[in-house]
Amino acid sequence: MKEVEIMPSVIFLGTPKFGSVVLQGLIDAKYDIRAVVTQPDKKVGRKQVLHESSVKQTAKANNLPVYQPAKLSGSEEMAELIKINPDFIITAAYGQFLPTKFLNAAKIAPVNVHGSLLPKYRGGAPIQYSLINGDAETGVTIMQMVKKMDAGDIYAQKSIKIEPEDNSGTLFEKLSIIGRDLLLDTLPKFIDNTITQVPQDEEKVVFSPNISKDQEQIKTTMTASQANNLIRGLNPDPGAYLLFDNKRLKVWQAEVSPDKTDLPAGSLVSNKKRFALAFAGGSVLDLLEVQPNGKKRMNIKDFANGQGSRFKIGEKIIND
Predict the structure, then answer these.
(1) Do 116 and 33 share a structural domain?
(2) Where are the beta strands (DSSP E) in 226-267?
(3) C-alpha dist (Å) from residue 93 to 6, 16, 39, 185, 189
(4) CATH for 200
(5) What order do you get walking across the sheet with 32-37 strand by strand?
(6) Domain boundary at 155, 180, 207, which?
(7) Residue 2 falls within a domain, yes or no?
(8) Has 283 been labeled as part of a binding site?
(9) pLDDT given at position 1
């Protein structure tokens, strides 16, 4: 009779789709998921419809127990979870600090799937900052969880090139798959004692705090490349915007023009078959997809033929 392999037990913590892809990978690999922890349901949109996280939806579809404490530390849920005493505690974009007492409940290790090449971009928005800063590459780190944010030893890393057409949404999707596969390659090494861990170089630490409201605005002090990187980094959420004619204009897609201009930053360069704006250093940005305040997204041709047609070349139409 063939011996049945007993898979390690896991408490999984995550919230967005990045986490749900990793969770589904663990489920498909037959890990024993004892509990799933995710952020509380939240109201979204104008109608404030209550929305379940992607991780919760995946957990429910697989009949897994779900915990949703507003704050894990000191909660009744944490006390219950500690009693599970799993082999692994695994997080992937959960969104809360985890108390040391909870991390110590893992019999083998607490492990995090982080969307950057640590020690670069510790914090809550690593994927966004890799785009905003114009990086050539990014990747995933499988790391030890410790009390200090994203400061644990590195177990494994894998890098990918950031393509010119990438935005935050496409990178999240790519890195979630890489993170899933890298985690599944790494966990067995704990079992057979072949795991290695490398301390992070503290001199190379870069932080990536959550995106603030102020960071969402495209400023005319930016070059066209910097503006385009911000647009890519904040697409699809929360979106970058211009103060166009003193009103918010979200920009979902743009491209840097090879053209140069002597017009002041914020001026209209062209609204004939394109909608081009002057930015710092004489650089020019072509808008491709926009969303006027209170309206739906539209391609730039429709915008240029409507609102954009009433402005003159050289007119300063962007405010800071």
Answers:
(1) yes
(2) 240-244, 247-260
(3) 27, 7, 10, 19, 23
(4) 3.40.50.170
(5) 66-67, 32-37, 9-14, 88-92, 109-114, 137-144, 154-161
(6) 207
(7) no
(8) no
(9) 45
Domains held by the chain: number? 2
DSSP 72: -
Q: What are the distances in angstroms from CA 219 to CA 168, 172, 227?
A: 20, 26, 7
Q: Helix %, strand %, coil % for the chain, to 5?
A: 30, 30, 40
Q: Which of 169, 134, 129 is nearest to 253 (CA)?
A: 169
Question: Residue 119, annotated ligand binder?
Answer: yes
On whether both 68 and 193 belong to a single domain, the answer is yes
Helix then strand count (H, E) for the chain reads: 8, 18
The beta strand positions in the chain, using DSSP E, are 9-14, 32-37, 42-44, 49-51, 66-67, 88-92, 109-114, 120-122, 137-144, 154-161, 206-207, 240-244, 247-260, 268-270, 276-278, 283-292, 298-299, 318-319
- Distance in angstroms (rounded) separating the CA atoms of residues 232 and 229: 5
Residues 6+ apart with CB under 8 A from 170: none
Distance CA 164, CA 225 (A): 11
Q: Whole domain around residue 219: which residue ranges?
A: 214-319
End-to-end CA distance of the chain: give it in Å, rounded. 73
Residue 273 gets the label, from left (phi > 0), alpha (psi -120 to 50) or beta, of left
What are the tens digits of pLDDT across the range 263-310?
A: 999 999 999 889 999 999 999 999 999 999 889 999 999 998 888 788
The predicted pLDDT at position 113 comes to 98
65 is in an annotated binding site: no
pLDDT, averaged per 10 consecutive residues of the chain (320 residues), comes to: 73 97 98 97 80 97 97 94 98 93 97 98 97 98 94 98 97 98 98 97 96 96 98 97 92 97 96 93 97 93 87 91
Q: Is 117 marked within a binding site?
A: yes
